[in-house]
Structures are given as structure tokens and as C-alpha cells.
Amino acid sequence: MKQQTMLIPTLRSVGEEAAMASHRLMLRAGLIRQLAAGVYTYLPLAYRSLRKVEQVVREEMDRIGAQELLMPAMNPAELWRETGRWDTYGPELVTLGDRHERDFLLGPTHEEVITDLMRNEVNSYKKLPMALYQIQTKFRDERRPRSGLLRGREFLMKDAYSFHADAETLDETYRAMIEAYKRIFTRLGLDFRAVEADSGAIGGKENHEFMVLSDSGEDTLALCGSCDYAANIETAQVGEPEGGWAAADISRVPELKKIPTPKASTIRDVARLLDRQPAELIKSLLFIADDKPVLVLVRGDHEANEVKVKQALDARTCELADDETVRRVTGASTGFAGPVALKEDVKVVADLAVKGLADAVIGANETDAHFIHAAPGRDFGVDVWTDVRTVEEGDTCPQCGGMIRFARGIEVGHVFKLGTRYSEDMKANFLNATGKEQPFIMGCYGIGISRILAAIVEQHHDENGITWPSGAAPYPIHLIAVNVKDEAQKKLAEDLYEQLRQGGVEVLFDDRQERAGVKFKDADLIGIPLRITVGKRAADGIVEYKFRRSGESGELAAEELLGKLSELLKRVDESK
């Protein structure tokens, strides 16, 4: 393609709202333009890269036997009401009504639609397992769309769904998808990790996120420095300390005693008032899980993890109770709750670290009062002991006992084992080998196509612009005629352009009547992996090649270019 007539509106600077490197560079390089908050137009260069990413994804999905289809973006609300997600998904749903006052939504994901298709079209185990996927625009009304393509309200996604008669074939497909995802992200030149994660509004049990490592990522990852354990901080488990979660010796602890703690409603205030360390206090938090109150206990220097609480209770919804509910259940204002003398009978879930506390401080369920000398098992009971706190750097790895460290990441893929979460709600059944009806066992597998584009730029750029890896570059070669007014340069460049095109090589040809400095700055900004420059030695038939990433350069005869092109392109990703 000739650059003179191609839509590549490069910019020297952009506004302060573009804080992420990928956002700034994709705007400056003429890849994207914002139409509305979180809604972008993909200009020709970006769209070419999107198609490259899509092709890699399709090849790897097809390789494991998944079948491509295309489902409607506009979904009838009644399907989502069957699963309860019309009400629980929240304000991120983009909803609309038609002229007949029928409710619809623009799909953020397609579990309901694909399950509806399968319950109507597949009724025998003989057709299973089956995996189906699509690449389609999705819609989510993000509260704060920002960071360019990393958090938009309209985005491109590959979503796949598998249907099974048994858990064994789900396991096989799940493993195959994980391996396919690893090949996809490797082919696209990304440094990534597969981490344990929360399933969120999708539901299901086992799931993994694929995170591109980046200091500017929104997610915090817990990684072990000694083994391959990796998890999102939302779900990272805390390993047992040496000696296990031993209960404290409470034989010499005095009796429970209530004392006044006026206006001391925080851990810091209570610790300061009583001359205690936060680790000697028990923090009591009231949650509402599936409309039922649950009291969660964690050590005072730890933070309760809402995702872990939800998982421990196998709940669909879980959130902190409001002040009014706290007063009703505990009899006190927020900050004075405790596990003794509650006004209502509630389940008590305690973090494992609480086992080791003796002579602890707890809320007295009375405003401006706490208990001292509290001991678990003696003064209050616990219904569930489990890990419900947020992991911290330096904690023990649950896999090998090593030390946990934190890193930042950008989510680009997520795979889930859904089980029968959707098929049971939607009565999507098939006849098994014994002739009995049973619900489909399901998995789902997503990749953010447009997020991948931004993640690549986050990992592959320098002070001058983008440094595309070959797998996602809009073109492999950028051919530059330094001075098109020079006849020798113009003729040689045009001859090479035609030879490359006839040889089936994709090439961007900078034939603009611009200064050499402008052309080279734009070339660095756009970041195509291999640059071929036709300059002052054109009359001698000599051209220069340069690798964008490493800056390595050299000269060769123009007549040798086609013969050596394959070797040069192989060296693109090797040049660091």
C-alpha cells in the first residue's frame, strides 16, 4: 500500500487523558480515533493488525476442533432472565427496547444465546463433546472507560463455548484451550502468565486468566518466586505457615470483658486506644451473600477478600452489608460488630489466621464498646474455617511454600469451567447413553482481540514509538523512498515495491513528498518490524535495511533483496 493515499494521521502529541503508553502511541501512530468515551474507530493500520490477531486465534481454535459461527449481538432479555443475569449483571449491560416494547441487550458475552441454540439443536450425547466459537463486537457500559482499547464500552472478542456429557471431556477441552491460548499469545510475541482467577459474573468453578505482564496493568498478580504458582490477587490462596494453622493456647486467657471504646470504630483507633497491635484484634465484617447475612472474621492487620468469601459460601452474589443491615443484625453501628451476642442467627466464617489468636479484641455488638480477652472456640463459635483474606507480599506460596511476590498484569484471556450453571437454569438437556435427560456440562473461553492489540503495544514500544512483533504487525516491511524527487531513488523504490507485491509480500511504501526526518520519525512511531530505505546509494543499486526493535542495520544490493527477504524476516523477532 502506498502511504501517500493511506489514512495514517500521525500526531506529534496527544492530550493528557491518554495516560497509558498504548493509548498515547495508538493515537499518535494513527491507529485509532475516539468516537465517544470507550468507543473507537480502528483506522487501516490497526484494522490490519486486528485481522492478523484474529487469524492467529482462528488457526489455533480450528487446530483443536472448535467450530466458528456468528451469533447476534442483540439478545432478547428473556434469555438473560432465565439465568437471572438480567438483574445481577448490573449497570454494565447496554439495554434497549424495540418498537413492540420488548427488552433487548447488546451482548457483553453469549452464554445464554449459545445455550439456547444447543438446547434447540442438539439432543443426544452422540454429538458431544462440541466446541463453538465466534469473533464478534461486544458491549459493556463501563463506569469509567479509559486507557484506550484496554477498557472500552465496545470491543472485539473471541468467545468460545464447549458442551459435554461428562466432566472428563470438559477437562480435556479445558486443557486443550489452555494450550491453544498459550500458543496464541506466544505467536503474538507476548510475555504472559496463566493465573488462577475469579469467575465474576460468568459463574462456574475452576477458571484461569491469561495476563500480559506490564507495570501499567490494572490487575495485581501474586507470583511465587520458587515455583510456577500464579494467581490474581482476588483469588490467590495463602499457604499454611510452618507448623500449620495451629489453634492458640487459651488456657490462661482471662474471661471475656466488655470495655468502653468511644468513637473507636476502626482497627487503628481501637489498637491505639487499647495499646494493642492490629494483629491482636479480630475484624468482624457483615456480608450479604445471596440475600443472607454472614459474619466474616479476619485478623485486624489483614483484609477480608470479598471474592474468596463468595467462593467459600458458593454464593452467586456477595457484598458488604449497608449500615442499616449492620445495625439490625448486630445492634450496633458499623465498626463495632463482633461474633458474640448477635441480634440474629448468622453463619460465621473465619479466616484460618484467626485460629492462632488468643486474648484478642472483638467488637461487642454495642456502639462504642469492645470485648477484650476474646478466644475463638471458647467465647464464640465458627461455622466455617477457610482462607478468606487477601494475600500479601511475603506470604507463603500455597503450592511449594516459597515466598509470594506481586506483579502487574493486563488480562487478555479467560477460561472457565461452567459446569451446569447455565444449562440447569435454561433447562438445556440432552439424552445420555442410558436414554435419560441430563443438563449439558459447559465450559467457556474468551480472548479480548482488541485488548491484545493494546497489550502488545504496552509490551513492545520504546521512546520513539511502537516496536511491533512480526505476528501482529500491520505490515512486515516498511519501504521508504527518502527523496521521491530524485529519479534514481523514485524508480528503484517503485521497482522494489512492485517486485515485493508480485512476490506476495505485504509492504507499506512511503512515497510521500515529505522531508526525510518526517518519514523516519513516522516510521519509528508506526513501528513496522523491517525497514528498507532507498536513499543516496540508489544509483548504485544499494539499499539499507534496519530492524525497528534493535536498530541493527546494514546494506545490500537491491537485486538481492527478494532472495534475502526470508532470512531478514526470520531475524525480526530475534533482534532485541
From TrEMBL:
Q: Where in the cell is it found?
A: Cytoplasm
Q: Does the keyword DNA-binding apply?
A: no
Kindly state which reaction or reactions the protein catalyses: tRNA(Pro) + L-proline + ATP = L-prolyl-tRNA(Pro) + AMP + diphosphate
Q: What molecular function terms (GO) are annotated for this protein? A: proline-tRNA ligase activity
Pfam families recorded for this chain?
HGTP_anticodon, tRNA-synt_2b, tRNA_edit
What's the superkingdom here? Bacteria
Q: Where does this chain mainly localize?
A: cytoplasm
Ranges where the Aminoacyl-transfer RNA synthetases class-II family profile domain occurs: 38-469
Q: What is known of its domains?
A: Consists of three domains: the N-terminal catalytic domain, the editing domain and the C-terminal anticodon-binding domain.
Protein name as catalogued: Proline--tRNA ligase
Gene name for this UniProt entry = proS
